[in-house]
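Renewal narrative, Specific Aim 1. Our central claim is that a sequence can be written position by position from structural information alone. The example that follows is taken directly from our test logs and has not been curated for this report. It begins with the structure tokens describing the chain, in the order in which they were read.
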């Protein structure tokens, strides 16, 4: 990082300054030498060498030039202040805290201080020439100072415009917030710690404001970067908070009156402190507000929020922070609830994809208990979507749980039976034609899991699924079998993130599906049929 910063400093400051100064000096020297030796008319007083002639300041003519040195630098300072004021004000109208951020930047302060000092020095130099005394060293120093002031003006403007780019503002807010959290986690002074908590909260809300403004202005790129910045802040914090002092997790007086905290019951605030998750809760609470705002208007942001929430959950798995993992699942549930209330099926579908990936990470990390709890939540929202007449969401839940059970079997986890029981309880019985698609979708997912079990030699578990389907109408079973038979390609005919058709099965599983259906009761057969695997 240090090498990168040094390289950036050379590209943005050293190289432009050297190049501009070299071009100016070369052009001046070329024409001055030409005048000195060819075209200039020299008196006896100026018949020395080129450098001696240039620096042989005349006391009766230099006073006018000296006064102009200070005036030119004052004019440059006025131009710089005007340009900076305009662009900073325009940015401040869109992004809160920009002015404070601008004047905290060391480069900005150094350049402005340089111009002010040069102007003050110019006043004193203009009064230093009198009589026959000419302070040549002082004049040369002033000339060099003014030259540098003119030369650095272009790189400084480039720096200001670069400084105020939205992406750089977002990165700077996130970096400052992370630094604030690092300081607060090790602080032992109560007042300092409270101030740092407030500053951290302010950084989060600034990123949220940027996102909201960008959503209103249909600026998806900036909104996405601000959402990602909140994720980077939370993930970095989750990794570092193991070093924090216990006092850091106490919600201090400076943030207790924040609207997100003041609306909570005292018991809930105590829970946040005991679970040591108030920072991550605040980040994802910001996510929930953004999610609600972006519903129906910028769905890509909703999907990105689900992705970033999954990243936070995976960071909790790495850190073995069970409280944060639970909190992540709760916010995933809240996203699903908001999407279902808005009847936004596409957003719910995308959230379920990320939720499934998070539960899969739980299984692979060996946290089967958390996975069982999350699958219970998925089943609940599958039931909710069923009652809301959103059959595709229910079907998606079924296929996702099916995929999770297959992973649990591959990993030989003890929670597989619990997951299977929840899966078999997902379907509903009923004669409503409006719900037929949801019922068929759930049963298809169960048939697919049964075929998988048969392909890996788990006939007893396939038998459980068969027994659960014994009382299904024969017409529905035949339709399920025929529709699954027709699916030959794993690729769906639309662009989807999941990359695979729900109903696709490899050839071996499809053959096992035929075996599964051969043991289901057919027209005219007795109710009881031989168990799967019986000759």
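The sequence written for that structure reads:
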């Amino acid at each position: 990082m240090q090498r990168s910063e040094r390289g950036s400093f050379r590209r943005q400051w050293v190289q432009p300054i050297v190049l501009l100064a070299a071009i100016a000096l070369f052009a001046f020297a070329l024409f001055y030498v030409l005048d000195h030796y060819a075209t200039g008319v020299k008196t006896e007083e100026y018949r020395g060498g080129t450098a001696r002639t240039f620096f042989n300041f005349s006391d009766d003519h230099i006073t006018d030039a000296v006064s102009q040195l200070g005036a030119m630098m004052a004019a440059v300072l006025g131009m710089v202040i005007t340009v900076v004021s305009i662009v900073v004000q325009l940015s401040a109208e869109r992004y809160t805290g920009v002015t404070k951020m601008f004047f905290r930047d060391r480069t900005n302060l150094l350049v402005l201080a340089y111009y002010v000092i040069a102007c003050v020095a110019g006043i004193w130099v203009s009064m230093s020439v009198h009589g026959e005394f000419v302070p040549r060293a002082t004049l040369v120093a002033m000339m060099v100072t003014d030259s540098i002031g003119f030369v650095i003006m272009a790189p400084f403007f480039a720096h200001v415009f670069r400084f105020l780019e939205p992406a750089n503002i977002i990165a700077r807010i996130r970096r400052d917030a992370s630094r604030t959290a690092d300081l607060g986690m090790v602080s032992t002074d109560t007042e300092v710690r409270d101030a740092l908590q407030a500053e951290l909260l302010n950084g989060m809300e600034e990123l949220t404001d940027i996102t909201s403004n960008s959503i209103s202005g249909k600026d998806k790129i900036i909104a996405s970067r601000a959402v990602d910045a909140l994720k980077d802040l939370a993930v970095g914090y989750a990794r570092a908070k193991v070093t924090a002092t216990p006092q850091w997790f106490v919600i201090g007086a400076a943030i207790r009156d924040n609207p997100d905290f003041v609306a909570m019951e005292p018991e809930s605030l105590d829970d946040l402190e005991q679970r040591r998750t108030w920072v991550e809760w605040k980040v994802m609470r910001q996510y929930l507000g953004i999610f609600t705002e972006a519903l129906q208007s910028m769905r890509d942001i909703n999907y990105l929020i689900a992705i970033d929430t999954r990243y936070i959950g995976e960071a909790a798995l790495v850190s073995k922070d069970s409280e944060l993992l639970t909190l992540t699942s709760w916010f995933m549930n809240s996203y699903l609830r908001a999407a279902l209330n808005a009847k936004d099926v596409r957003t719910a579908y995308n959230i379920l994809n990320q939720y499934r990936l998070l539960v899969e990470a739980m299984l692979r990390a060996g946290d089967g208990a958390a996975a069982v709890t999350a699958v219970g939540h998925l089943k609940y929202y599958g039931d909710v979507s069923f009652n809301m007449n959103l059959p595709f969401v229910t079907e998606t839940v079924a296929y996702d749980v099916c995929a999770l059970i297959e992973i649990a079997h591959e990993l030989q986890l003890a929670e597989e039976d619990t997951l299977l029981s929840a899966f078999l309880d997902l379907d509903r019985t009923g004669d409503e034609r409006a719900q037929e698609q949801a019922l068929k979708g759930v049963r298809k997912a169960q048939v697919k899991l049964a075929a998988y079990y048969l392909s890996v030699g788990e006939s007893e578990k396939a038998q459980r699924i068969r027994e659960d389907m014994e009382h299904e109408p024969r017409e529905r079973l035949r339709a399920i079998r025929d529709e699954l038979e027709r699916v030959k390609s794993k690729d769906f005919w639309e662009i989807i993130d999941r990359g695979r058709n729900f109903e696709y099965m490899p050839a071996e599983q499809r053959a096992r599906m035929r075996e599964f259906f051969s043991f289901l009761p057919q027209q005219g057969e007795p109710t009881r049929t031989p168990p799967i695997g019986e000759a």
